[in-house]
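Researcher: Let's try something more involved. This one mixes different molecule types, so please make sure each is placed in the same coordinate frame as the others.
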Amino acid sequence: MAQSGKSARAKTDSKALIALYREMARIREFEEQVQKSYLEGLVHGTTHLCQGQEAVPVGVAAALKPEDRLTYTYRGHGVCIARGMSMAEALGEIFGRTGGVSRGLGGSMHLTDAERGLIGSFGIVGAGLPCAVGAGLAAQLDGKKAVSVTFFGDGAANIGAAHESMNMAAIWHLPVIFVLENNLYGEFSRINHTTPLEDLADRAAAYAMPGVVVDGNNVLAVKETAQEAVARARAGKGPTLIEAKTYRHRGHSRTDPAKYRDEKEVQAWLARDPLVLFAQHLTKGKHARKVELDKIVEEARAEAAKAAEEAAASPWPEPRDFTPETFAAP
Amino acid sequence: MAIEITVPKLSATMTEATVLRWAKAPGETVEAGELLVELETDKAALEVEATDSGVLTERRAEEGETVTVGAILAVLNGDEAADGDAKLAAETAAAPPRPAKSEPRKAQRLEDATAAGPVAPQSAGAQSGGSAMPGLRRPRPAPQRRVLATPLARRIAAASGVSLEGIEGSGPRGRIRRHDVEKATASGRPRPTPAMRTAAGGRLSTMRQRIAAQVAESRRVIPSFSLDRWVELDLVEDSRRLLNRRQETAGGVRLTITDFILQAIADTLVRHPRLASVWRDGTEPAIETVEGGNVGLVVALDDGLMIPVLAGLAGQGLASVAERRQAAVAAARGGRLGAEQSGPASITFSNIGGYGVDRFEAIINPGETAILAMGRISERPVARGGALAVARGASFTLSVDHRVVDGVVGAAFLGDLAERLEKETWRL
Amino acid sequence: MDTVELTYRQALSLAVTEEMRRDPSVLVMGEDIGASGGPLKTTEGLYEEFGPARVRDTPISENAFVGAALGLALCGYRPIVEIMFADFLGVCYDQIVNSIAKHRFMSGGRMDVPLVIRVIGGGGLRFGAQHSQTGETWLLPIPGLKIVAASTPEQAYGMLKSAIRDPDPVVFIEHKALLGTKGKVHVGPDNLLPLRGTDLVSEGDRATIVASLGMVPKAREAAEILGREGIDVDVFDLRALRPMETGDIVESVKRTAHLLTVEEISLVGGWGAEVVARTVAEAFEYLDAPPMRLGLPEHPLPYSPPLEDAAIPDAERIAGAVRDMLK
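Model: All components are placed in one shared frame. Result:
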């Protein structure tokens, strides 16, 4: 049976706590800015926002080192910001400009930055797990105790690649942390229609690895759980499946008004907004005053707005001058 | 590998040709597309080009000998073409840039592949004592093809009896397309070759009916007489060789003997206006001048002939004459003459010497005054300044309409024409 | 070592062995490729020399281990994965076409993906419809992949070494019926063959035949049959399907005026159509007959021997096609 994650204990340096809050605020404001920009016609196609899920990437990132590698999904802006990707470069990519992190070739679903370990953002559900397994194998072969983390959703938990990957990571004892963000919906389908389990972490036993359920809106709980899993991995004890229970505030994608969700459910989860929860924790624990936290949010908003301006000023790629860069050795 | 060059069939009725002049000697290297030998047939010189590069090892006929269509004329040895590899190397060098990773590829014969020395520059085979990996084997280069035409264009040209040589292609790479062939036949629609019928009970083609009517009319109406002169053509032949080299460089039409005769006729007409005039019958008969130096040319076709007129040859250089001659022949073979090829002429030239006759008397084209018939070019002993020499020449027979041209007038024309051919210089 | 006679499968193992000795970042993964030396014995000796860390048996999880190859490649390794039967490409198709092929491009050219996917395919061995694809065309339309097909031990050796050293994803197609064929191999540490370009394996002026994999020896046999009838032909081993180079084929057709492609795959969507399209575009005026293609019929490969044999083009059929074209 899966274990419940521990609730957060205090005793962390206030600065560090405020830093966590800042990271979540930055992600929140970044996603809000993407939304604004979308309405201004600067974002093309579609985009998948993670407002409400910020505690997961922030908590996990806080447990990692620079040499660790991550794969994630089309809902992965939060992971990228948490790992330090420049907002302007990220927005530039989302706007399709040459200043984007991939020169405009990838777009919202494919923000990557190898130097920050952000090795792959996958648009195909579940496709990131095998890549993370490979990165975990690389870490094992390197012998330097790096780990590999993969973020995926409750929908991906049902796809073949996910099962294959967890099985293989377990049999090879790979240092992979499988972070399953269960936001209760696989696109438009609620989990109870697609999966005969309440806690997906229960599957961990079937993969011969520990499975942990954690409150995905509690950044400290996420961080602590992640730290344990990372420590196990670095010690050569193999993979862990972390199921972070969370909720997305918006629809599946920009074009989805999410009318398939029960209004009461939405309201209940909005009340558990990770930023709100953590702000309460910080003020109650006297780590920060509300006015400081508000300022942090404002600064994050301003940072995002400035980044959007910079991104919007970045030039469009010129088809005539376009070099595909499909091959390293053409 | 032995490459055989056979006698090509230029027209449906061609069965033989005479070897006029070999351009290459045994042992010489020939490039694909280069002139190998000149044949004479169908009143025109026929140039046979090598289809491949190689060294000429055998000439199967002597100059002056008759060869049959399809027979082997010459044999080349393709393996020993010294220039072949150089050409292939040049083409390899011109190949699109290879990526830095892969080896440059060098041409090799298959038999040589395993025996080849190191060709892969990045092979460090020498260090390990291993032998280097041979490169990828490449095909021999394709011969240069001067006539590029679409299948449709070829089909139309064949149906019209038009040669693709000399048609300018408007497509990419100079490709001849349907439009170009139709333009060249000057009608916009291809003319099917008249059907041939057997003599026993078949219907006569339009052309045969026309010819019959015309020659009968000519004999009936025109009181003709003829004058003969054997003309030395050494100077003409030498000039032709020389000028053709220039033509080749300039990309101009290859000159034939006919071109020289045509220019000579045009030049001589200037000084003999009676030969440039025609008899106009009617209630008030008259002799009318035909301006410009127009000369007709007999062109043999399948079971018939056509006489296109080359207009305005007066003062034209040989290159221009040759171009018009080529166009006129093509038009005639296409069965339809253009407007300017259907104009009036006072004199026509007929050359059937290639078939082996010494002399003949042609029938004057009705509406014209004269016809010049040329026999075969052959060597004859001649007396010069009291000593024997050998000269190449042909017999020319001028038939004239006595109503327009008297004996003296005719003789003067022929004499001047002969002088022109024998002694004067030529210009392109 | 100088020029040695090796079987195709020995050539594969030797190539991998040499590259693994040369570069510690090279490793091999696949089903049963470790201690047992590979179900088709294509990795013999590797496990003994390099051990389980670098010669890894995987669970039956093509999706996972092919995707893992991507992860390894992004983290500084050069993985070689073996797909036991080309038909199994279906299982990992997503990882190959959506992840591996597109990764570098989507990163704006900032990440390299140096990996090799060895695919053992081909029919004629009575393995039935689900174990007999050559796999040549399953990945053909995908930009971002390099695809090569070795028809001889030497090609296998030289191209596999190149593929392993190449910084891009290479799909390396092998034919199981060729695994036992013997041939001379110029062995040497840096003896590489390019991943581009065709190889002329027979010469002649009457027609041009282009073939790949198992069809290459059949085309050569056909060339011999035709040669005895006085019809000499150029035969090309296509070798590299993506990127495909047809310059030499075009040059040959400009001389022969006739083109026949022979592939062990359905004509629809095959590479023959690509060769024909390019040749017609560039040698239009030189063709004296419409180009012809031979391939598999429009049904899955049957199990029963006479039916399977009838489905796969053989030397007689190839020769017959050339004769028909020249009529």
